[in-house]
Amino acid sequence: VFKSFRDVVNSRAYDELLASPEGQRAASRGVSIFGSVGEAAEFQATNWLDRVPVTKQANNHFIRFNTRQRVDLFDLERNRLIAKLGRETTAAEEDAIARAINRATGVSKSRGVGLMGEFENQGLFAARYTRSTIEEVLKAASDRSIEGEIARRYIGHLVAVTAFLATATAVAQKRDPSEVLNPFDLRAMDKGRLMLNPNFLSVRLFGHD
What we know:
The protein is an all-alpha fold. 63% of the residues lie in helices and 0% in strands. Helix 4 (55-85) packs across helix 5, helix 5 (91-104) packs parallel to helix 8 and helix 7 packs across helix 8 (146-172). The longest helix is centred in the middle third of the chain and has 31 residues, at 55-85. Mean pLDDT is 83; it is low at 37-43.
């Protein structure tokens, strides 16, 4: 995170990362690279907005943080797999790691085709990010390969961190933790109704969950 803030004003370290053996290896295996050297991100402002104060810096932070994150995660997962298998990873295994990292960070494998693709792109905010989230859940639920393993671990981390933050906030606000930890509405159940809890894993801020 701190490196990405430094990258906003000075791209030297970021350019060195992309040119490094780690960066080149990640890119060669399909890890998504955003910015002028890669494709445009969905949340990236168009180039002409760079003339607006702060917009260019915000673009740089978004692009470089996400790219740096993917390169670092690719290296981390590759080393994890090497330690698990006791040998160097194959090209196919590294390709699978790259796809999993892309998916976990909002870049879907698919792009949407035909009328359905047009509907997604026009009707959804960040269609590619939405598709990647759906793909991530499906991989975690049904895939026993490297991609499924990484998806399950990352979703598990996300749920654990979210649950911790929601619980810590509820305790600090002197609320009953069950209000944010139970997926079902306990008050509705007391009245004989089965309803989902709208405050599940939520944080209360200024009176709103």
